[in-house]
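sorry for the late reply, my laptop died twice this morning and i had to redo everyting from scratch. anyway the thing you sent over, i finally got around to it. pasting the sequence first so we're on the same page, its 345 residues, then the predicted structure underneath. double check i copied it right bc i was rushing
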Amino acid sequence: MSSTSDGKAISRATIADVAERAGVSIATVSRVINETGPVAEDTAAQVWSAIAELKYRPSAAAKGLASRRTHTLGFLVSEISAPFFTPLLRGIEGGTRESGYSLLIHAIQEIEPAVTGAFRRPLGEHNTDGLLVFAGCLEDVELAYLYKLGFPLVLLHQTPPNDLAIPYVTFENKSGARKLVDHLIEVHDYRRIAFLRGPEDQEDSYWRELGYREALEAHDIPFDPALVAVGGFNEKLAQIPVRTWLEQGTAIDAIFAGDDEAAVGVISALQQAGQRVPEDIAVVGFDDVHLYHYMLPPLTTVHAPVEQAGREATVQLLQLIQTGQAQPLVLLPTEMVIRRSCGCE
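ok and here's the structure:
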């Protein structure tokens, strides 16, 4: 803030003003000013022209922040104890180590809302060069804050908020789920197929349910909301609706548990109630977590390249840090894995 000769305060131009005048993103302005990534010559010229017109002066603190390098990546994740996260972390750690970077990990059990713009992040621009963010670990307002700083971000299993061009990495959830349910219907003639949703804030759950619904529709099987419940991608939570269905005498041929961890809970609840898997009720999962390969019965599931997702997200983040460019979306293929829990021998 400065003042005119008559003492009236006038507002000082901001980096957002420069971006708007030049018709580019704030991240691009930051790269031009701090020379932290390649920018086309004509685009750079537009930015410098806007800077001159607005008399914009970047603060020393901002320039120091942009030029400082910690050679450390950060990973914000909801938890690390579930078996799903073991290969994911292995992929991230491998990609980080091979590139000569260090890795900081923070597990967020519950997101604390931002208060008056003061974000309380254990990891961020103050101690890392970029962040990998697992689904649901940062509020949209904070993602927007970091993006507007020009801070490198890559999302895992979450599309970026509107108007934020943040790269993200995920699986082909819908097609994998569709093939799995098609198999239950076409090969085993199951028609009463239940589905357990994952956490509400995870897009994987949404796309898997969409694949489930599309398979039912394609085979003229009416969608029955009584056969859909929340399993939360969690072994204990998944047991609750299964017990309810059994107590109510709900007719069920098969249960698509949403993921492998929930499938473990489903099979446990069924077996405790004296139900045989797959003879009485078939069970299928999603992810193909190695720990569950040796279940009895062996679990039919969808193989998701979890470790590859971690490594690819790391590669994209490093490219973003080093060049300012990354693939907007990396969509990794999934593959059905047939074992005995669905009724196949």
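The first helix runs from residue 15 to 22.
thats about all i looked at so far, will dig more tmrw
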